[in-house]
Amino acid sequence: MKKASGFYLAAVTLVLSVVAIVAYAINCGTAYFGPSGMNGLVMGCLIGGAVASLLAMFVNGILGDILTIIAPAATIYGVMNMLNDRVAGIASIFTFEMNAQNMADLTSCIVALVAGLLAMILGIVTAFNAIKKAN
Fold first, then answer.
1. CA–CA separation, 45 and 108 (whole Å)
2. CA–CA separation, 33 vs 39, rounded Å?
3. How many Å from the N-terminal Cα to the C-terminal Cα in the chain?
4. Which SS3 state, helix, strand or coil, does residue 3 take?
5. pTM exceeds 0.85, yes or no
6. How many angstroms separate the CA atoms of 135 and 129, rounded?
7. Per-residue pLDDT tens for 24-83?
8. How many domains does the chain have?
């Protein structure tokens, strides 16, 4: 199988998605964001987007094309729900509760959001690129 640029973009998207998943899981265990718990919808969408990105790299035909659309769509939905869950806490930390512990807890949140946003953008770009070169 000859790989085109879309294959490598999908691989980078997969890595960024995994980073977002791990950072979100870490963030859900922090002292500040831990009590709100882990949103299953966020985790499910991020994992679904990562799996779709992985499968898109190896599945041929129309199913592969559909997977390249599902991957960024799932990631977008997951990241937007993560942002929805965390925006009040982020604003509260920056306005009223700024201390070393809360800023450390905020770091994993920001890493998860940035990695998710980059995975979204690269996933959209991947959908417009070929995964395999034509014979």
1. 18
2. 11
3. 9
4. strand
5. yes
6. 16
7. 999 999 999 999 889 999 999 999 999 999 999 888 889 988 999 999 999 999 999 999
8. 1
Give a yes or no: residue 133 inside a domain. no
Q: Where are the alpha helices (DSSP H) in the chain?
A: 5-28, 40-56, 61-95, 100-127
Q: Is 2 helix (H, G, I), strand (E, B) or coil?
A: coil
Residue 135 lies in a domain: no
Between 84 and 131, the higher pLDDT residue: 84
The C-alpha atoms of residue 34 and residue 31 are separated, in whole angstroms, by 5
For residue 80, being part of any structural domain is answered with yes
Which tokens in the block code for residue 30? 């922090």
**Is position 55 within any domain?**
yes
* Nearest Cα to Cα of residue 74 among 53, 54, 57: 53
Residue 80 structural domain: 5-127
Q: In b/e form, how buried is each residue of 72-82, taking b as 16+ CB within 10 angstroms?
A: bbbbbbbbebb
